[in-house]
């Protein structure tokens, strides 16, 4: 059986690994000239580590990840609003990992047979009968996996002109700092602004900022420093470390729900199926789950039945969290912070169950 995978990001490469291990002959079409990306950090939560274990890649990830660090949410002053009880989280859900995105992609890529990878091939059209038209000619498969991200050509050609991705109202910066080591994974909530940082295994620090902003705003390092240089330590040092580093800036979008992730011989995975806001750190995690389930499912209808309700639940929860995290009215923000300080630690752990207790 032949599968054509459109897109060689996390969802596409993971699908290629999973399908290969289930006996499929796979071809991965990726428009970039090389597989991999500059990227930044990525949280691989316990549900996704279980998916990677199912692919036989969990250990390789753990070796290149940092984990077991204290985690939680702070106020701009540095005061804790919510602290994760990581012993309890570990007992309930297992380990989670912070990795460099490029490391995850490299581990996935190395697990796909080299002759299956076709970089520099841009897909132009996908048909329900399994035909894929691209810059290198035509490919056909018994299965086509649309893993081509939020502006998916697969989704557009098979599902028609869906409403465009919806701007969430906030935009992010991401970077990796070399000389500002941290020991905890923290997100700090202000008014319409958030800042997060986490240790990477090699002593570097992944950090990101999320701000309410008009779509297309292009502010760079100066804007980042203006907004965050007075927040609690180590945030000033992190925003001052961006000179000379790659600073990524992306507006955040999500896709409207689809009524099905499958049509004819075509299935969507990852952002092409359910691009979500990054507030729960679950976009790539869900793509990894998709890949494992797709390869094991008894037909595409079963894949859709198993994946659509779950991923659309995560999209909803992530959107809701973003609304609360980006409140700007002082009274609302004050009330939010008070409630967060009062909630028991065990409540946080329990509330994560629908996301983290997934198993293949
Ligand atoms: C700021 C931010 C932070 C995030 N943090 C996290 C996190 O901590 N944890 C987490 O789990 N998720 C996180 N995510 C979400 C995560 O990045 C995405 O969900 C994930 O990368 C989706 O993977 P994908 O393979 O589905 O799509 P993509 O990564 O978009 O990959 C699509 C691939 O398809 C290729 N492609 C596109 N069109 C074509 C075409 N026509 N022909 C051939 N190739 C094509 C592209 O070049 C690309 O390589 C975050 C997202 C953002 C924006």
CATH third-tier fold name: FAD/NAD(P)-binding domain
Identify the CATH class.
Answer: Alpha Beta
How many strand segments? 18
Chemical compounds bound to the protein: flavin-adenine dinucleotide
Structural class: alpha/beta
**Number of H/I helices:** 14
Task: Tell me what the structure shows.
With 360 residues, the protein is α/β, with parallel strands linked by helices. It has one domain: FAD/NAD(P)-binding domain (3-Layer(bba) Sandwich). Helix content is 37%, strand content 25%. The protein has a seven-stranded mixed sheet, sandwiched between helices. The protein has a six-stranded mixed sheet with strand order 7-2-1-11-18-17, with helices on both faces. It has a three-stranded antiparallel sheet with strand order 8-9-10. Strand 1 (2-6), helix 1 (10-21) and strand 2 form a beta-alpha-beta unit. Bound molecules: flavin-adenine dinucleotide. The site of flavin-adenine dinucleotide has 32 residues, from helix 1, strand 2, strand 3, strand 12 and helix 9.
Topology:
Layout: E1 2-6, H1 10-21, E2 25-30, E3 41-44, H2 46-54, H3 58-63, E4 71-75, E5 80-83, H4 86-93, E6 97-100, H5 101-110, E7 117-119, E8 123-126, E9 131-134, E10 137-140, E11 143-146, H6 153-159, E12 166-177, E13 185-189, E14 193-199, E15 205-212, H7 221-228, H8 235-240, E16 248-254, E17 262-263, E18 266-268, H9 271-274, H10 283-296, H11 300-325, H12 330-342, H13 345-351, H14 353-356
Parallel strand pairs: 1-2, 1-11, 2-7, 4-13, 11-18
Antiparallel strand pairs: 3-6, 4-5, 8-9, 9-10, 12-15, 12-16, 13-14, 14-15, 17-18
Helix pairs in contact: 1-5, 1-10, 2-10, 10-11
């Amino acid at each position: 059986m032949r599968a054509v995978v459109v897109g060689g990001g996390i969802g596409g490469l993971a699908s290629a690994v999973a399908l290969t291990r289930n006996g499929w002959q796979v071809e991965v079409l990726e428009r970039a000239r090389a597989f991999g990306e500059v990227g930044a950090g990525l949280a691989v939560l316990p549900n996704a580590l279980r998916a990677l274990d199912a692919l036989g890649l969990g250990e390789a990830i753990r070796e290149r990840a940092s984990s077991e660090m204290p985690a939680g949410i702070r106020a701009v002053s540095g005061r804790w609003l919510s602290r994760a009880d990581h012993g309890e989280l570990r007992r309930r859900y297992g380990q989670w990992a912070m990795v460099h995105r490029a490391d995850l992609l490299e581990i996935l890529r190395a697990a796909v047979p080299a002759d299956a990878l076709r970089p520099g091939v841009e897909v132009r059209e996908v048909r329900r009968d399994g035909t894929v038209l691209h810059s290198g000619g035509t490919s056909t498969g018994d299965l086509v996996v649309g893993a081509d991200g939020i502006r998916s050509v697969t989704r557009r050609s098979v599902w028609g002109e869906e409403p465009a991705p919806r701007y969430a109202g906030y935009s992010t910066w991401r970077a990796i700092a070399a000389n500002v080591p941290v020991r905890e994974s923290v997100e700090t909530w202000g008014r319409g602004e958030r800042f997060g940082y986490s240790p990477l295994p090699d002593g570097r620090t992944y950090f990101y900022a999320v701000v309410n902003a008009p779509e297309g705003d292009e502010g760079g390092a100066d804007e980042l420093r203006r907004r965050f240089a007075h927040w609690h330590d180590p945030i000033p040092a992190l925003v001052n470390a961006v000179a000379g580093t790659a600073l990524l800036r992306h507006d955040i979008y999500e896709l409207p729900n689809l009524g099905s992730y499958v049509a004819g011989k075509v299935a969507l995975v990852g952002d092409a199926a359910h691009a979500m806001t990054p507030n729960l750190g679950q976009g790539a995690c869900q793509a990894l789950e998709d890949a494992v389930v797709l390869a094991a499912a008894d037909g595409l209808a079963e894949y859709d039945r198993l994946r659509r309700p779950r991923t659309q639940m995560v999209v909803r929860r992530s959107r809701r969290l973003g609304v609360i995290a980006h409140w700007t009215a002082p009274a609302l923000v004050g009330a939010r912070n008070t409630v967060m300080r009062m909630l028991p630690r065990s409540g946080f752990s329990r509330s994560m169950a629908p996301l983290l207790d997934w198993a293949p």
